Amino acid sequence: MSWRSILISKPARLSLQQNHLLIQQDDTVPVPLEDIAVIVVESREVVLTAPLLSALAQYGITLLTCDEQFLPCGQWLPFARYHRSLKILKYQMEMTLPQKKQLWQQIVKQKIRNQAWLLDYSGHDIAAGRLNALADSVKSGDKNFAESQAAALYFRVLFGEHFTRSHDNAVNACLNYGYSIVRSAVARALVQYGFLPALGLQHHSGLNAFNLADDFIEPYRPMVDLLVWENGFTNGLPDTLTPQAKQKLVSLLHCQIKLDRRSYSLLAAIDRTVQSFQTALTGGSKNLKLPEMLPLKVQDYE
């Protein structure tokens, strides 16, 4: 299991050397490719070699590049990593609307429960109770819009009465950065299991190549919220991300989360969630394996 997430924030040359990523900056550092899950390149002065890009695809490593605001804007994903891609794509394209609605119901329920956990963890037990009741009321396809009702209460309680997701501030900058990192990990897992990320359950924008990733990220979003809340990344200039915040957000992929009554790293849990989606489509259990929140801690690797 790959376990490293690498942030390149200074000028560098990245190349391939004997199955290692060679990072050439002030010093030269080799990193085994088999250890790497995600590389985030935010410096505008980074050179990557073609053999390295090919090796990243072969090892299933996600490469993210950033825009002028240092937010991830591009993703390099492996091509044809799964040995039965056509079969999985056929299952995906033949999903019925009721099937999509039932899976989306599970996702929304668990997202709201995870939001409720975080409100309770942060000392807002009354609001947490309201969210748990809302989670219990989610209908197939979320036709009562429980997800949006939960969000309206959740963010205001967690980050302050006047907080909204549309404002340009340090909290939203950190949230957007963290969500981008987790979204990339979800897209990576979907591709590895042969899914086409553009074909979503609930998200279906014709302009979005990652609709399915935007479906499955939902119950994982509160992990980003937890890190931003717990570390208090609220004191920078509007829409400014500190290097410390970015490093912590990239490292979030290796923090613990509960799934199927066991503790996994976020990366490993995402893999198992996508695997359960494959099982649901191929005639196995219809219940997705979705994450439950745990206090923020790096997952121990055996």
Topology:
Layout: E1 4-8, E2 12-17, E3 20-24, E4 28-32, E5 36-41, E6 46-48, H1 50-58, E7 62-66, E8 72-76, H2 85-93, H3 97-121, H4 125-136, H5 146-159, H6 170-192, H7 211-216, H8 221-231, H9 243-251, E9 256-259, E10 262-265, H10 266-281
Parallel strand pairs: 1-5, 2-6, 5-7
Antiparallel strand pairs: 2-3, 3-4, 7-8, 9-10
Binding site for Mn(2+): 147, 203, 218
Family: Belongs to the CRISPR-associated endonuclease Cas1 family.
Protein name: CRISPR-associated endonuclease Cas1
Instruction: Indicate the low-confidence ranges by residue numbers.
Output: none
Q: Count all strands and give the number.
A: 10
> What would you call the shape?
globular
Strand order of the largest sheet: 1-5-7-8
Structural class: alpha/beta
Based on the coordinates given, report the CATH architecture of the largest domain: Up-down Bundle
How can the largest sheet be summarized? Answer: 4 strands, mixed
**Cα-based radius of gyration, to the nearest Å:** 19 Å
What fold name stands as the CATH topology of the largest domain?
Four Helix Bundle (Hemerythrin (Met), subunit A)
Strand content: 15-25%
Average predicted local confidence, pLDDT? 90
The CATH class of the largest domain: Mainly Alpha
Number of domains: 2
SSE ordering: EEEEEEHEEHHHHHHHHEEH
Number of helices: 10
Q: N-to-C terminal Cα separation, in Å? A: 11 Å
Helix content: 40-55%
State the CATH superfamily name of the largest domain: CRISPR-associated endonuclease Cas1, C-terminal domain
